[in-house]
Amino acid sequence: MILVSSLMFIQCTSEPIAGPQGQAGIDGTDGIDGVDGVDGVDGTASCIACHSESHRTPIINSFAKSSHSDQTIMYTGQDLANYTNGVSASCTKCHTSEGYINYIEGKPAVKSEMPSGVSCTTCHSKHSTFDFENDGHDYALRTMEAVTLDTDDSYTIDYGNASNSCLVCHQPRSKAPVDDGTGMYLQANSRFYPHYGGQSTVLEGIQGSYIEVDGAVELPAIGTSAHRTGASCTSCHMGTSTDAEKGLHTFKVSLDSCTDCHGATPPTEVAGLADDMAVLKAKLIALGLLDEAGNTPKQTEKVPFKQVQALWNYVTVYKDGSHGVHNPTYTKALITNALKALEDN
Ligand code: HEC
Ligand code: HEC
Ligand code: HEC
Ligand code: HEC
Ligand code: HEC
Ligand code: HEC
Asked: What's residue 8's pLDDT?
């Protein structure tokens, strides 16, 4: 009862009090039309620049020409027939897609039984930002972080751009020899070289061996090469090119990316280096420090340390694969000093 009567009370008091209504006023005059706004940018225009079919087709076609995409080479490091037991854990980071992704995600390296080679999704995943204008392009890369070297945890390389993504794999696996104080040295390891991926350290101008012999040429200061400061892995290896066999995702150097600095006809060789390398190679073979083919180090007894340094510099420049172009001045100095060290041999 109390509930019902209280509801009735509320209803009565909240009823509006209706009085007599007046006439509606006359309509006002129309206002002046506003000025048209500026057209907005199409919401997906910045995406289409990279995500259109016409933009992606040349990239996909060019990647097919890179040895990165050759599965049998990538995941074995050589020939699949030699690696029927899968790829050992220490190689997967750089030679398999799952190993690389594991590494980036901070997971431990594991042996790969069914390895796959490098594909688009090895290097790319998703964007970390869509505000490209303010945050810069991330190219949806899995990493653009600076890399601390496997061979030297006190040294970090930072290109400040997408070239950092190359560093994880294109770095050495072993370091220059260190004198034990006796001046004599034995390295009984046929893998006495910085692996095949020392391009980043050569570009940086580190991890060659400075040989203290009479008349030795000073090594240039670290990180000063014009190819390090004014160019980058991606600018030389992934630029646009008029030649479909080069540039983009072929990763093959196009001379089109050299013209800004070198003009219409860039040099393709480091002056005198090929000749010096040939002389050095012959000497190292004669000393029994290299096999006859000049590819593989070999050594059975202790030799003067400077000879081993000369060998190290030779294999560093040889395995870098750029014939000195990555760092002309540094490379020349390493080989000149190596030849000086072997003057009496
Ligand atoms: C500078 C070039 C570039 C621009 C601009 C760009 N992207 Fe991407 N995006 C990439 C690359 C490279 C990948 C990874 C490889 C691939 O699939 O092409 C990718 C991947 C993606 C993926 C993941 C694809 C998948 O299959 O999982 C999405 C989603 C995406 N982008 C959305 C966008 C959107 C939305 C925009 C615009 C706001 C945009 N992207 C602009 C280069 C770009
Ligand atoms: C830090 C990364 C890294 C690791 C770890 C690594 N490699 Fe490599 N490896 C490379 C790179 C980069 C190249 C290619 C460089 C080039 O083409 O100039 C290469 C090249 C090779 C080649 C030469 C291939 C050819 O076509 O000439 C062989 C063989 C090889 N690796 C074997 C191995 C084996 C076996 C392991 C494990 C014991 C291993 N690699 C671990 C980065 C690595
Ligand atoms: C070995 C690593 C790697 C692989 C594999 C790779 N990319 Fe890329 N991609 C890069 C890097 C690094 C850049 C940034 C290049 C730059 O800074 O100019 C890039 C840039 C791009 C861009 C934007 C740049 C542009 O020119 O528009 C697209 C799109 C792209 N990649 C698509 C692909 C596709 C599709 C595949 C597979 C067919 C692929 N990528 C495989 C490393 C890779
Ligand atoms: C996942 C590890 C990995 C990454 C990331 C990577 N590479 Fe490689 N790269 C390799 C290996 C391994 C080979 C050797 C394949 C072979 O010939 O045996 C190679 C080969 C090459 C070659 C030889 C020529 C060719 O045919 O492709 C070039 C040049 C090269 N890489 C440049 C780059 C650049 C530039 C980047 C960064 C944009 C990059 N790589 C990123 C592992 C990698
Ligand atoms: C100034 C331009 C330039 C820069 C910067 C540069 N490269 Fe190169 N690179 C070259 C040239 C030129 C060659 C020799 C190519 C040839 O002989 O076909 C080469 C060769 C190579 C090779 C051997 C290719 C093969 O077929 O064996 C690899 C691998 C490579 N570069 C990777 C890299 C990586 C990784 C970086 C960054 C750390 C880098 N390069 C920076 C110009 C450059
Ligand atoms: C940022 C400017 C710049 C770019 C880009 C550049 N170079 Fe260079 N290059 C130089 C400079 C400066 C030197 C002189 C040596 C030094 O300072 O390292 C040089 C030296 C050289 C040398 C040694 C010449 C000799 O006679 O010893 C060669 C070979 C070379 N560059 C080739 C190339 C190639 C090939 C490319 C493109 C793939 C290229 N450079 C891109 C600036 C550049």
From this structure: 42
